[in-house]
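[Q] Does anyone have a clean structure-token version of this?
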Amino acid sequence: MSSDNATTINRVASATDSSSARLFAAQALVDEHRLANRKAYLHPYTIAGWVVLAAFLIYSLEWYPKDDYPGWYALLAYMRVLRGPLVAAVPIVMRINRIHREQFEERAERRVKARDMVDPAAFSRSAKHGAGVWVMQTSKGKTLGVVAVDIDPDRVDPGATATSTAIQKTTKQATQPETAIITSLHVDLNARRSSPNAVDELLRFALVQLAKKAPLSVNNVRMLVAPTLSTYVENALQRAGFQPVKPEGQPPLEPLGVYSWPQEWYELRREQWPIAKE
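[A] Here you go.
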């Protein structure tokens, strides 16, 4: 890490960490929203539609160059053409952003209202089988990230939709015995830049806590990831040994964004936990 983050501390969330834990949990989805917008704007279909719409506007509104300026001022006539691409971009950008904003804001709201984020400290104290919320901080007390693990197979989060219902049903129906669910894993961008292993360290810490406290009835740990929008999380899971799975009895997962980017479950079975043997 950089000199500012030379020493990091991973610990269970306390009463003073509630706001920062919810902030980081929501920030993970905000980052996905931002990346989804960028990928949608630069998608070949979007660019093709933008070009076609711009050409239509230029032709139908006669925004093509005309010889109505004398001398060198004739160059200004060619600036008419710029109105087509600029005007065509406005509805496309607004439409994409509106669709994404509704979807990702709803997901962020559900996440911060989940039982592990309402009061992270109380959840960690009362949680069973190794569940809890942990934060990564610098030695100076600056929060860098958060990871949360839930295990209760009967949990019901408010505002459930297709994706949250999938998490619940996967946990309850497709996991006999119980399955641990990583509900949040996020590290600040600056911390990830200064220390490429920051996410790995936080994930490993959560797995260590889970391995220490989880009974044998917890035989695997899973996390729901959108690989296209959370590449750093997917890479950290893969480095830890997680593999993509399709749990039986699970309803179809909700695709994300205007181009329906998929979500996938990643799983690490107990016999594969490298830290369980330590």
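[Q] Thanks! Anything notable?
[A] The first strand starts at residue 8 and ends at 12.
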